[in-house]
Structure formats: C-alpha cells, structure tokens
Specification:
This protein is mainly beta. It has three domains: about 300 residues, Thrombin, subunit H (Beta Barrel), CATH 2.40.10.10; about 90 residues, Immunoglobulin-like; about 80 residues, Immunoglobulins (Immunoglobulin-like, Sandwich). The protein has six helices and 33 strands. Strands 9-10-13-17-16-15 form a six-stranded antiparallel β-barrel. Strands 3-4-5-8-7-6 form a six-stranded antiparallel β-barrel. Strands 20, 21, 23, 24 and 25 form a five-stranded antiparallel β-sheet that branches. Strand 13 and strand 14 form a beta hairpin. The longest helix has 10 residues. The chain is elongated. It starts with a strand and ends with a strand.
Amino acid sequence: MTRSGLTRSGLAWSAVIALAAALVTAPPSHAVDSPPADTRVTPRVVNGEPGPSADFDSLIAIGDRQRYRTMGMYKAQICGGTLVSPSLVITAAHCVDKTSATSLVAGTFPDGDLTSAGGRVVNIVSIAVHPRYKRGSERNDIAVVTLAEPLLGVDTLTPATSDEAETLTAARAPASVAGWGAINQREPWRFTSVYRIGQLVVFPTSSCGGGEPFTIDGVRFLGYGPGAVDARVMLCAEGVRDGTPVDSCVGDSGGPLVGGTGTGRRLIGVVSWGLAECGTRDGAGVYTRVSAMTQFLIDAGVPFTPEPIDQPLPPTITKVTSTTARMTVTLSPAAMGIRADEYVVSARDRAGDITTCAVAAPPPPETATCTITDLATGRYVVSAISVAEGIPSIPSAERTVTLAGLPSRPRIVFASAEPGRVAGFVVANIRGNGSPIITKRVRCSAPGRPARSGPIDADRVALVYRLSVGTTYSCVAIVTNANGTATSAKVRLTAR
C-alpha cells in the first residue's frame, strides 16, 4: 500500500529497507528478516488473527525471482495476490507496473507459510496493468498476471460483479483481508512468514470519499475526502479488535479483500494504499473497488461467471421509521443467492441487548416490513438476515437508529418577579430524549389577562415581559420535540 506516498509493496520500500538494515547492522541481503521473538510486536495484518484459513486458499505470494532462487520466498515476497483462475492472479498495479514479468514469481503455500517446503512456485510470464492506472493517485490500482503454468488443485476466488457488490460493499458490510506484510510499523522490512487475517468493516462513501468520520464499535476513524479518495474506483475498510484498529500494511499490497461467506465469497477489493502509519484512527486502508474494474478484468481473461450461490444473501435495509416505543424496518431482497423464506431484523441497544422481529419474505422484487415493539428510547444498531430452508445469511449492512421519546419534564428551579412588569426564570432538565428540541418557553397566564411567554435561552434563562402589576400569574416551562410536549409544574408569582 501507499502510505503517504510509500507503497505497501516490498519493492517500494527498498531504500527504507537498506537504511534500516544498515542501522541494525544486518546485511543488505537480509532486508526481510525472520520475525522477532518479542511477543509484544503486533503482527500484520495490523492486529490481525493468525492464519491460515480455508477462506484464503486462493491467496498468492508474489516475489522477486532472483531472491527466491537464492533465499526462498519468505525473503523474496513483495506483494500478495488472488488466484482467480488456475493461471491468472489479480494484484495491485503498483506491485508490478515498473517490474518485468521475467523478474517475478508467484506461489501458493500449505498452511500459508512462506517457509514451507511444500510450496508451489511458478514463473510469471506476462503482466496486464489497468490502462488508466495512475501512480500517485492510485486510481485503477489493479493488474492481472499470467502464470507460466497453472496452479491446479488450488482454490480460486471469483471477483464480485456490480450486482453482488451492492450488498458486499455496502456500508458496514463485513469483509476480511489477509497478507504476509510487515510485523512492526517501525521495522517495515520484517514480514511474517505465516499470513495474518484481519476482520474489517466497509466504510460508507460518506466517509470514504466524503470526509465524514466513521465509528466502529466505539472507535472513531477519520474519513477521506474526495481529493484523496475516488469512491467510484476505491473503497475503504478497517476493523476493530479488542478496541484496537485492524488494518492491512506494508507487504500486504495486492492481496484480497473478501466479502461474503461460503460459496458466496467474492473478491471485492485489492489492497492498494493508506496512511503512512498502519492501523491508526486517522484513516482507513484503501482498496481498489473490484466491481468497478469488470471490463478490464474481462479483457484480461478473468472469468466472470461465478458459481451459483447456494445460500441466501441478506436483504437491504432501505428505510427505518420510529415512534416512542417501536421501529418499523423496510427490507428489499438481495439480487443474488437463494430466495429467502424469512427475514429477521435485530436491534441492539447500547447495553448489547438484542430485540428481534421476523417476517415472511415475499417474492422478489417486493419489499417487506418488520416492526419491533416495546422498545425503550435511545440508540439502536439495526441489521437484518435472510433465512432460506433454515440457512441464515451473513448480516446486512448496519443502520444506526435513535428511538426518540417525549421530552423530559422540565423544572422551574428559580422564579422572580422584578420591577418593570418582568419575571425571570431558571429552568432545568431540558432534554429531548433522542429528538431535537423544537421549542422551549416559559408561559405565564392569569384569569382575565393575556398570556405572556418568553423563550428559554442557552443558559436556561427565560424572561417574560409586559405582565400586569399586582396580578398573580401561574407560570410553566414548556418543551416540545417532534414527538410531543412536556410541561413543568406550575409556579405562581405576582407581577411588580
């Protein structure tokens, strides 16, 4: 990945590697060294989990041919890739655009271990870089390499189509990334021999290309604006594990970002770039959006006829309406996968308690609504799954919904009649309970006299003018939100 102009491929770090190796007195040929024994070092993928996993059987290591011959793939690996047919690998353009095919090899390794003697390594014979790839901006950062011989018996992964990507790359959709990248940000020449897996969440375009912050499990990430990220051809993803960001890093470039589960798993992104320091809250890892590269991939010979998906995919939450104690969720069917029999909606509150509702799934493209009742006011995280013949789908993209109630009952804590027919008030307990306050006033009335009122300001103070001297008024504080009105107890005073 490019981190502030530094790529996440091993090749682009050659100068850094040489300098760092000199500083630690390691020979230049050992720029990529064995992982240190120090267990305090965070492995890469940043805060990731140890592999291997059957989900990443298609993960391919791309390395320098000469280094491989002399030192093995562990020290030769520069990037990752995804086997999409026995002879074709998708990787990042910045991994290979300035490298000849004859200088590269690609391989797959049992148990995901680059030091395994059972690995299969073959030459790369050609490279197809996206014709509109632009180094620096990293737009269209994708390439297809052709192997000298097929890697038969190795699982392949199908790229996501546009229809599939609507679900798999929706905001908060789960995704995973894997790679053999750096094991320590301060030592980018130190890679891990067994790949690591990171569980991520896809950012909405309002954050990836829109500049808005994005929160995952209570961790707030800064967003990228349109000048940094082109959301049409890129997507952002990051995760949180035990309160710590999960991210791809140096050496993970070209590797797969995977969405879906089972036979519905698809290649949705290619590790491309990010900030100079991996795994921070200042921004997310940025990936090439595979579904935007369909024509290029077809032209490069990549098969785009995925196997039938033998499991349901989640519905899309298209609308949520709420009142003081209930929410109604509108669901649209997935475009792919087995037709659902049922939709199940879950609403999780701040304490982690989950309330659900279920509804029969109508024939596509009809929508369905599911209503959850007897809810307390507050914030809920809402998601939905499809169920077909007892098989559940992965969860849909999440929606955050605030269930608003009536305003809290305000309290007049101080009232005083002042000379000049003015009354002053201090009001407490002004809360909208999830819905913005529309109006807040103190109103004074007396028999046979016109009612007078004044707004409550930001300091909770209200002044009521033009009262009739000697008249005793009954005064109340009134607070209104979209759901109704709350009124304080009465306070009596005589105007002066």
